[in-house]
Amino acid sequence: MTFQEDLSFVLQQSNPQRRGVEVTVRSGHFAAARHCVGTSNIRGSSGQADGYRGSVDVRQAGGLINVASLLRASALTPDAQPYLTQLFAAVRSVDRPLVLVLGAGVAVNAGLPSWNGLVDNLCNMIDDEPIRRMVQADQSNPLRKAELVLQLLLQQRQTWEEHAFVRDALFPEAPPALPGPILKALARLVAVSYERRPTFVLTTNFDELFEDALTAIIPPDAVGVFGLDDADEWRGFCADGNVGVMHLHGVLRARRQPLEPLILTESTFLKHGKVVRDLVGATLKGADAIFVGLSLTDPNLVGPLHDLVPSKPSDLLNDSSRAREPAVHAGDDSRYFAITTADLGPDDPADRHTRAQFAVESAKFLDERLGLKPILLKSFSQVAQLVSDLGLIVHEASMTPGNSGRRRAPVSYLDRLNEALSLLYQCLCTEEGPPFVLGRDDSAKLTGQLRKALDGPKGIRELLVELADQYSGPGADDVRPEDEHFGLFLWLRTIDDTKSTSRYEVQLVGSSVYDSYEPWYGKPSEAIHSESKYASAMSIYGGRTVKTNLESPGPWRGVVAVPIVLLGWSSDLDVNGELLDRVIVGAITLDSNYQVRRPDPKSGHAPAAPGILTRIDADDLERLSERIQDSVQRCLGWVLTEDAEN
């Protein structure tokens, strides 16, 4: 289709605004260097107060974020999160081992199911429909529910082993998932830490995605996989300067035997619980620990933390006093941090305030009872951002005086984000800002640039035609990309003002199909949260590519959204060629008038028309993400670099 045909198509349809997100897939990132126009030596204004530079006492006063700060867009700053200063100091330190404790959230960010999602997938494998509906409606403890489901499945397929059901429920997609942004950021943190201090990894996850992320940037023989029965070997491996990943619940492999024991059901938790608790407690004692992706409802993790927090005399005399007085943090033994997300939901102010209040109150239990210092963030990409910045801080601390001068020191995340956004908006606007507003000529120019990225030489449609030839068999009656309508849309984060209640949101800046001065265009923006109806917001929320069908009555039926990640904005520090300084500033979306995912046969929806984006596999989706990045960066004239995460 030509631009004029795409525009004519849109004019005949209703306004394309809301977007229903169903599924996220493997990551694809759009990377930009810090030079957008001319040369700019960007430095942060926060100085040592931002917690990224200077020496800080680990035991200095900190505190949990409050509701007002959590609601602001600028939640990822030491001013809003007082415990960040202590976390920065802890990762700089070399006087203690570093322990990472990883849960299901880091796997969800890579496209694997959560714990409850895993149990749901097991339920869906039950053939007897009445029994399946009854089990799905069961609200009992998830461990007991998993026990029941596996009993039913073993009766249904008596030649199968228990681990085979769990494996198929964990890896429903083929090929299996790749490490997501959080796991890659954690791997970079480990890569700059493990030679400075003993580094131990505990995980409740069954997959080996973290090991995949680690071996991509550090020697594979320095990475080891261990199960609960290998605790002594694991300790020795880590003590020798390697990185051992202890799978507390076992390991499931797509085409190999599992690493046992597997702990999923109530009976296995009871059987192995004491061994797990003892191992966790011994590993945490005297260490700096960071918990990531955990709900912290597992008693095998909560119990050891509770035991490591010293009791007050009043606790020993009268247990009811615990409800009135906060626990004493464990001093040097309480350098434990939890990086977690608070689900603030949609835009309704009252609802968002209630959710923020609930999240803060829930975090107080971790803070006051377990000596665990929560860092509450608003998205998976913010978690990845913070972990990336921890790696940057550690690497800066390890630089010798002779080397540190040739590489710029990191500045605060908020400074980097706002300065990058200001410069990118300046690339698009002739009028000075802020606020940055595209004039008529600016808008028309951007439309032409995005149109060239879509339909020009080495553009996006050219690759889609190539993929269609690859997937179309003899006599196939598939829709061709030449007959499919596409639109390319540029979304950027709004500039974050710490002095206001500015929203954590993304706004539509331009489109290949029409410019912002057309009367039907509007100025859509969307808060970034887990329930967003915009694929662009969801790709920024997760920090990864989103491929989804749309539910609105507008002209578009499917969309692929790719985050825009700036690399090396204020620092060129790297680990094995991977730049540590990363900031997400927006997203690119490719919209189609055909669905991009085939509906689940059990959903009851009619089969979708087979557009090319429906047919491509995960590897070719990654190729498409790279082409979107390359084409847009070239046509916008930004000096951009390929993201190492692709």
Give the key terms.
646 residues, alpha/beta, Rossmann fold, seven-stranded parallel sheet, 23 helices, globular
Note down, in words, how this protein is organized.
With 646 residues, the protein is an alpha/beta fold. The chain has three domains: 3-38 and 445-636, no CATH class; 81-111 and 178-309 and 318-391, Rossmann fold (3-Layer(aba) Sandwich); 115-170, no CATH class. Helix content is 39%, strand content 13%. It is built from 23 helices and 16 strands. The strands form three sheets. Strands 1, 9, 10, 11, 12, 13 and 16 form a seven-stranded mixed sheet that branches. Strand 4, helix 11 (231-239) and strand 5 form a beta-alpha-beta unit. Residues 2-51, 53-61, 312-333 and 639-646 have low confidence and may be disordered.
List the helices and strands and how they pair.
Elements: H1 3-11, E1 30-32, H2 67-71, H3 83-92, E2 98-102, H4 104-108, H5 115-124, H6 129-137, H7 142-156, H8 162-170, H9 181-193, E3 199-203, H10 209-215, E4 223-227, H11 231-239, E5 243-247, H12 266-284, E6 288-292, H13 299-308, H14 313-317, E7 336-341, H15 349-369, E8 372-377, H16 380-398, H17 401-404, H18 413-428, H19 440-455, H20 460-471, E9 486-493, E10 505-511, E11 525-527, H21 535-542, E12 546-549, E13 558-567, E14 574-575, E15 578-579, E16 582-592, H22 612-615, H23 618-636
Parallel strand pairs: 1-13, 2-3, 2-6, 3-5, 4-5, 6-7, 7-8
Antiparallel strand pairs: 9-10, 9-16, 10-11, 12-13, 13-16, 14-15
Helix pairs in contact: 5-7, 5-8, 9-10, 9-16, 12-13, 19-23, 20-23
